[in-house]
User: Fold these one by one.
Assistant:
Number 1:
Amino acid sequence: MSPGETGRLIAETGVVPTKAKGQNFLTDGRVADRHIEYAEIQPEDDVLEVGPGLGILTQRLIGKGKSLTCIEIDDILADYIGKTYGDELTLIHGDAVKVPFPHFDRFVSNLPYSVSTPIIFKLLDYQFKKAVVMVQKEFADRMVADVGSPDYSRLTVNLFYRAECQIVENVPRSRFKPQPKVDSCLVAITPRPAPFEVKDEKIFFKVTQVCFDHRRKKIGTSLKAAKLITSNDEIPYADARIESLRPAEIAEIADAIAALRH
């Protein structure tokens, strides 16, 4: 799909790309080919695509696995995908943040920036083999950031706990129409067992959320404000700040809180 063809489809469908929906359509078929290749789809795999848009990935996904399901929120684009590909896929016309995902083994998506965070957190609640997502570069940097980096975040920690996460390709902004203000990246997410154990995952994720929501405060202060603890006693790293702690060290805090509750 060339920029000219993308422009033609935008005109024919009548879709008006909006910033609110983050609609920047990929125009480079070579990037789309590599996106699919990174997903390593096998014939027995059920594939899920969120936000098929004008179908540059969709047309390449058909027939790759056992089944293909697409979730599209935009009325015009959902109608276009449904009419163009018919019975070759299952179309869910709805908000991917809200509708339950069907069973899937591989997840492939050009994710709009506006929903990147909720979709990635939602994705991590499902069992799957591999996901490959196109996201804005600043978001990709947050996904793979190291401790101490300004990009190190709750997203980083949650991903590290549940999966291997790797930027596999940088994609220039010139490969999209309309052209966004920033470059993008293709990121591969491969689930794996957690590299450390925690006594209570809910507490671990809650501690991570609370402390990153107040990343400039000392950890003990944030935990007391959230009523997770009443005293710093027996809580490791209480005088540190969350951005200086590795995920395994955050787990030590969570385990200390879990121990106090039993």
Note: The longest helix spans residues 247-260.
Number 2:
Amino acid sequence: MKIIVDAMGGDHAPQEIVKGALNAAKARPDLEIVLVGREEAVRAAAEQWGGLGERSGVVNAREVIDMHDDPATAFKVKKDSSITVGLNLLKAGEGDAFVSAGSTGALLSAGTLLVKRVRGIRRAAMAPVLPTAGKGLVLVDCGANASCTVEYLVQFAYLGSFYAEKVLGIERPRIGLLNIGSEDSKGDQLRLDTYPVLKEAGERGELNFVGNMEAKEAIKGGCDVLVTDGFSGNVMLKTVEGVGSFMGKELKGMFLRSLKSKVAALLVKDGLAAFKDRLNPDTIGGTPFLGLQKPVIKAHGGSGARAIENAVYQAAAAAEADLASEIQAHIQHMR
């Protein structure tokens, strides 16, 4: 399994990106790593962590797409950027998946036009896995498509279901439609029109549709895949991130308030660490772009080595699942 990694994307490139990618290669003998970026800088970063090793290599790319570039056209203007070169390698079959912590918009645009969508898929969707009371929640879409049609949302439901089942190992994943209430009469016109289509897919046995789902119920574990437009999904994602950060700070302040609370903190230290880890985006690694012909994983811009390492594992799991074939085999039901 060969994973291509954008060594120049993100706030901590190339040092942390290279470290995380090399850590993944050391931990998984079945993985090969191709680091794409300014060769001198990448090799210098690798030397800090013990060198490239036998299963890692570098492909030179002199340019870097930064946050000031137009995301829709940057990959065309900067044809020697790490994102453009890396995705062209993926397109040419010189790797099984691509990981980048670079510009989300540029990665989505380049992925769509270079790697291309599975035939019949109207829009690629971003689908992070959020921590919940259950096994986790695939939120699809979380920002790639602010405005959606019924067809887009129906396809997102299938994409999320395939990902949850094939990559996360959730049997018959429960699909919910994000809404302001559980009743089928609730929501705006998009939700009202989408509900019966998803219900019919459920009755045909193609999806395990459990109906409309309020955000609070989804976080409690009410479904495994939550379908929505990118605008609402992004608001929910940022809210969950904010609440997680707020709770972490409040808990820390509460336990440090007095000697008694400090003693209590010692007693629940392991549990608190596990809770904090579940809310840490580095644990997941990244967000897949579902609907493309090959796996593309977007890591957070602030990703450190641990996040990149986990994003590489996530990319490998997506490649092994061969989601594109699964999607193509069911595309007739997704229109």
Note: The two ends are 32 Å apart (CA to CA).
Number 3:
Amino acid sequence: MSGNLYVGVDLGGTTIKAGLCDETGKLLHTYEGQTGSGRGVDAILQNIAAYVRTLVAESSYSMDQVVGIGAGLPGFLDLENGIVKFSPNVPFRNTPIKQYLEQELQKPVVINNDANVAALGEAWGGAGAGIPNAVCYTLGTGVGGGIIIEGRLYSGFSGMAGELGHMALVPDLEAIQCGCGQMGCLETVSSATGIVRMANDAVYRGDKTSLQLLDNLTAKDVFDAARAGDEVALRIVNRAAYYLGKSMTMLATIINPQRFIIGGGVSKAGEVLFRPIREYFYEHTAAAAREDVDIIPAQLGNDAGVIGAAGLVLHMQ
């Protein structure tokens, strides 16, 4: 095969996934290994470089075809200098990851936030393919996101654009403190963590619900109960959907995307979640901002991170 190839790295607290993509965003080969967080920063960096080499060596392609390497990283980043200032799941503190990997692999390296990278993956080769303006939500333990404007990932002044989970939307009397320190963030009600918290609060209050019968509640339990008609579970799901829809209404009037894409584990709930999100959005958004706008599930699943990371190089050119 001729043509340019791009490597993407998706760094997690437990595993590192590397992927090789062509210019269309097609994933050609993947490799996955342990992060090795317990062995320190140097071990993690060495693992990333080793996994990239193994990825290419195991494929039917060569390192000469690789134009560059992109990395999706959790935490707070200095994008311009390629430094991880702080990461919650790996022991990176002011770690010059770009400099290290460029020296080790002799290829250009671009980094970005992992949620932004997942959004770019969906925009390039997933649910947003062919859509130049889109917003992607990642609903999991927290709420992440990414904004695509005219086909390019928008990072903002300091790289914080797309931190959708930290939009303060919940009124003061209902708000609780988010992990970021703010009160009433979207993440506190629309993440898996927020949904479980609301369910446990309902059980603790003695609300009449089938959730009372379950131990170690999960977000899936809440969605399953909602599908079965449990009124308390429906109330919790509708609250999570309400604030997601509200955030989309705000974004629709600010950046006017054509598509909202929802990924992450919570998105697997399906129509019990998507239906009320759409209902709120279409009812409360100005006609000109909602016309021809759709709200759909992500398509790439766990591959979004590596595909988007690979796309960082192409989209930075």
Note: The chain has a mean pLDDT of 93.
